[in-house]
Amino acid sequence: QVQLVESGGGLVQAGGSLRLSCAGSGRTLNYYAMAWFRQAPGKEREFVAAISKTLVSTSYADNVRGRFTISRDSVKNTVSLQMNNLQSEDTAVYSCALRTRLTPSGNVYYRDNDYDYWGQGTQVTVSS
Description:
By secondary structure, the protein is mainly beta. It has no helices and eleven strands.
């Protein structure tokens, strides 16, 4: 069984930064492809960023590339999302996801049905 718990969300002014963290229990997160998704009110969940197992590859949605960075901390068993220059359109519930299905090293995945476990989400609100 895997449990993922996000933290670090909150209220920030436009142009500010937040760092989200996804802590895992039951699995060593380094061994799995993971991602961050977000869902704004009234909208479908959308891909934000992904990281392959073994740190080979990362990938970002076009609207966050250059502002957001996904990374791992193997000591803390976490995956983080550093978000800089936040804008009002970044307001959403952010969730981390983990894929336990067979995954070649270096592969990243962009669809929510590519992932098997999800955290409960953390709210990010950006005021303009």
